[in-house]
Amino acid sequence: MIKTNTTKQNRIEIRVDKNNKNLIEKAAQLLGESTSSYVLRHSLRAAIHDIGEHETLVLTGKDKELFYSLITNPPKPNKNLVNLISNHPLQ
Asked: How many domains are contained in the chain?
């Protein structure tokens, strides 16, 4: 899942105000983590979530039925598609 104990050669820097820094440091301290580990762990979790939100397609029941129908019974190619395929054969 989230691997954070590998050799670290890259760096990310952020600027925060004093209140936010104190809040993050307190949370990290309460969990027995360094501030860097705390920020990295939460950032990785958020990044995985955000990427998943953008890369996942959620279909309604009606959309699922339409998708399945088109996959299992594709329509015949129209004239433009036939012309395109004949002018650009697959290699």
From this structure: 1
